[in-house]
Amino acid sequence: MSNKFEFINSLIMSAPRHRWRMCKTVALIFVVAVLMISVFQRGLVGTGGDLQIERNARMQKETITYWKEKQDKLAETRQEPVYERDLARTWDITSANCSASTNVSSIEGFSALEQNFKQFLLYRHCRYFPMIMNHPEKCSGDVHLLMVIKSIISQHDRREVIRQTWGKEQVVDGKKIKMLFLLGTSSNEEEKANHQKLLEYEDYIYGDILQWDFMDTFFNLTLKETHFLKWFSTYCGNVRYIFKGDDDVFVSVMNILEYLESSKNTKDLFAGDVLFKAKPIRKKQNKYYIPPALYNKTHYPPYAGGGGFLMDGPLARRLYLASETLELFPIDDVFLGMCLEVLQVTPIKHNAFKTFGLLKDKKSKLNNEPCFYKSMIVVHKLLPQALLDMWRLVHSDLVCTLKPGLLWEASKNLNQQL
């Protein structure tokens, strides 16, 4: 019995020595393994291992998450573009702090105004807000035509159809065409965070959204006008022409290019569906109602319907300077007409811009005539599916028997009869 205890005791005493030997053995094996792997890698690199390394690097890159890529992309877009004049320019508004101006309450008739007009006047002095999404690279190089579309966050389906149809970025006969959408923030407080995340992902995919930190409302459409003009003057020194419109329009880019070529010698080009001597609407039930306290003149200055118009780049920069001299006005296209009046520039009315509808008679077959659309530059008020259907018809094997001029005359005469 005593021999058994002595044997167990000897094992216990010798255990540390066994453990030490085992550790040395494991360490030696590890060192040998490291040396073998190093030798193997050297041989691998010498026999095409660099391809495997590149493949692994690509696989690792593809596993980076969307949010990491988004941050990198946003960081890239913050880089200021390089101009021939070597001017470093950037969006210089970093704070959205803006309090109500109590002085406006002394304006005659203020107390009798509707709440939305009171709100507009209280904050009318808040002209510029920080940028949330910016793409100055859109104006890099020589851009012949920059297409700029007003939209709101929830209307992503409209933006998608435009990208699939007339809004594709392209180069035509060496002329570069770029695309941008103008947005504020969601007016739906409950869904605001969700809408913003979806918009961020949309911009991650397409990279064509300019967004500022003001709420998207009807009266704030004028803010989109002033913000774009400031943005354009900041970043777009080499853009020749601008098409600006809504996200529910049918556009023929080829007809735009043809018109611009024929008007290349026109100074201060500003063309669209122009209204002359339009009167302010005084009926409160109307969407475009303006009280005399905001505008007491009999007529508005000439202005183009905001559904779609063309202007040249140098004029856009002058319009920005003119806008700085005026108080903001709730209707954006009228406000732009006021800026043109300051510059003493008269907009050009062109029959191929139909921003107030094709015909007064909404039941007329001409409203759905693809040959008519084919001859137009802009036609307003098409929902996504209607726009897609008309685009496919116009770009099918379409045979039109009437010339564009005859179609215009037919529509003009029909409107006059109504």
Give an overview of the whole structure:
- There is one protein chain.
- By secondary structure, the chain is of the alpha/beta class.
- It has 2 domains: 107-353, Spore Coat Polysaccharide Biosynthesis Protein SpsA, Chain A (Alpha-Beta Complex), CATH 3.90.550; 355-417, no CATH class.
- Helix content is 44%, strand content 16%.
- It is built from 12 helices and 12 strands.
- The strands form 2 sheets. Strands 1, 2, 3, 4, 5, 6, 8, 9 and 10 form a 9-stranded mixed beta sheet that branches. A 3-stranded mixed beta sheet has the order 7-12-11.
- The N and C termini lie far apart (124 Å).
- 31% of the residues are buried.
- The model is unreliable at 31-67 and 73-88 (pLDDT under 50).
- One of its GO terms (cellular component) is Golgi membrane.
- Its EC number is 2.4.1.-.
- It comes from Pangasianodon hypophthalmus.
- InterPro entries: Glyco_trans_31 (IPR002659).
Shape: globular
- Percent strand: 15-25%
Q: What are the segments in which pLDDT stays under 50 over at least 5 consecutive residues?
A: 31-67, 73-88
The helicity comes to 40-55%
Protein name: Hexosyltransferase
Pathway: Protein modification; protein glycosylation
Keywords: Glycoprotein, Glycosyltransferase, Golgi apparatus, Membrane, Signal-anchor, Transferase, Transmembrane, Transmembrane helix
Membrane topology: Single-pass type II membrane protein
